[in-house]
Amino acid sequence: MKNNAVKSDERTAKNTGTAAVITLVFLWAALLVAGIYKTVKYGAGSTTEEILLFLGSLLVFLIFKHRKDTVDLPKDFLGKPLPTAPSGADKRARIKAYFVDALINGAILAALNVTLNRINPNFSFTTIDCGSAFLTILVNAAVDLAVLGAVFMILNYVWGEHNIKKYNKLLEEEDEV
Question: What is the percent of the chain where pLDDT is above 70?
């Protein structure tokens, strides 16, 4: 009887967590849609509330998700867990996965920037004028990709390696017990 109560509590906690994540995803999607709408209609400076709500909810989510006793191991873009050993080969494999993830995420945001700029010419992260419209779009997209890709690479590397070290430390502590 006691064993069933424990299983029920674990399932309830898992279902509650899943429901909370789904709710958060819907909130973020609504904030994204509202932010894009306000950006197109009123300009880039009109999305302060959406950005603050997104960052605040992300911060609360990360604080509760990454407690001391949990580790979120890094995964590649397809969701496959990355190797966790501190060896050179495993670290190179992780760096390659961080780079691919950064490149894909940077490309997605660069394409979003080009799309939003075509809808509202006042909206752009980069404003390099190259004479022709096509060359301007191409150069601005390349700059966006380079900058956003570098930012994502740094974030992926720092966060991923932090979690790998935390995971390996937890394994060492378990081995000592």
Answer: 86
